[in-house]
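Readers outside the structure-tokenisation community will struggle with the description of the input data as it stands. What matters is that the chain and its backbone geometry are given together, residue for residue. For illustration, here is how one protein appears when written out as sequence plus structure tokens:

…
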Amino acid sequence: MRYSVTDSPSKTRIHKAGNAFSSFVATVNRLVTDEAALPNRIAVFKEGHNLTGGLSLGKAKGWFEPLLADIMAQGVSVVVNDIPLTQAACDSVEQITDVPSDWVFQQNLYITPREVQGFVPHCDAHIVVVAQLYGSKEWLLYRRKMDNPLILDDGKEGLVADPNEKLAIAERFTVGPGDIFVIPRGRYHAACAQDGASVHIAIGCAGIRPVDVLWALAGSAMERSDLRADMASTEATAAAQKYLRAGGQATFDLPRYPRLAMAIPKDPQSLSFQAVLDAL
């Protein structure tokens, strides 16, 4: 199956989460209650600058909400990385957007103060499904795009736009709680919270790419002494082609984050830290 949203549609389709909203909220609530695991997941940003190194994260219970209130009052955005979504949430991604549930591999939570843009325009090397959980957020999708970008050894070189460059806007729209939409792979985008705090999950999705198979085959080929032998060019090419033909019968899976096996609380309609957000 090939799912392609590389070319931005003329108008982004805004889906409604409906009953799936509770599965996303429950995932976040479960994560936040596990405060021992949070310090290694949290990052904070202001105007695109990473300020995480200056954080003093507590080890006792009850530190997350006071910290959240303090730093958001200073106009700082909070990111909680690598949220393990429930299977129900992954299934909802496919049911709502048609992006296959087994393509889900990374989930980050973004908590943004009012009228703050946490990041400069950038694109991602994968499809992003955005689920808005609290507040409203304005999104900008730019005309600029990269053609099926990858993150290689040089990191995210080229994925982040020059903050001084003015990009042409393709779309501008605002989403609210329960809205879900898809950002195409390689499409430059940015977002800004509106008249209050905003919370959304960015769900990274990627299928198996042909280059993944080639990289996997190359890695396994390094372990075979006959493929490391010296030989003439034509002989080496023939040996490599034979190996590739044989490897074409194999299947390769990318590592995925585990899906949580948990019972969803009955209709959780609000985030556990919503009182902090309301106070802002």
Summary: The first strand starts at residue 15 and ends at 16.
